[in-house]
Amino acid sequence: MKNIKVSVIVPIYNSEKYIRPCLESLIKQTLKPIEIILVNDGSTDRSIDQIFDLIEKYNFIRLIEIENSGAAEARNKGLALACGNYISFVDSDDFVHSTFLEKLYQEAENKKLDIICGSFEATYKNKVSKKMERNNELLRAGVQEGIVLFKKQIQLRNYIPMIWAYMYRREFLMKNGLWLSPKTIHEDEEFTPRVWNLAKRAKIIETFEYIYQREHEDSIIESRDESSVLDLENILISFMKYEENLSGKSKESFDYALLYVLDHYVYYGRMTKTLNKLLIKGIYSRLSRAKILTFKQKIKYFLIIKSTWLYFLVQNYQE
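Structure for Glycosyl transferase family protein, as requested:
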């Protein structure tokens, strides 16, 4: 196939209950031509059996088999083999509406964007769904440098880190060496800030074509164990090193990435009662100098540094 508009990369790991509706929703996309790259990350269930007839039927679907390496490596493998002008990632336990790719692609192509970020609708166990609405200030911003939109999203508490909410120009990713960090649980939180930091032309739109299924609890996203907390700790350390090479507006914007991940680290750390006070103190000092902490955040991190036990006690009492 020539002149492929979008390569859709779908990592698969033990998704036999969800993979067929996911793949069928991609086959029904109104945007043509596309390619669908399925990366089977060493599944031990019947995931591939559930969709083998579809793989055989459609020549724009490719199946790649790899040993179990994690979602980040599976996505990287698909990215390395992709031929489309733009890249989209879809999780194998979600599905999309038929115009999902077309809405993002048309806007990205018309505006010559490096990245475009949409939105999503989340569904829960009780069958209730909730749309992630974008702040009007972000929608009115139009095409901006990534560092401008990223900072504004954190300030407005309207940031989406999940990589499936985005469409990326493949040349932009390749030119800047933007790959997902392997062996990372929270790969979205690590990858997305770096993308925003390097994008010269970016835009946010509101579209609810992606259906994020939250009703199943065996997802990596739902993990809240110590390995998840340690993963966020490692991301914070890598971000501090990454920021050492930044300056000016890029450095200022990336301070907000540190703040976002730090907030998540503390939130998850409360569940396991494991927090690295020395690391938090170093980041708190850096963010204080940058003058981006709210009064409430200053109090929170000051309390954690003085006594994590007291902080946990206060939080439990407030709940």
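DSSP finds 13 helices and eleven strands in the chain.
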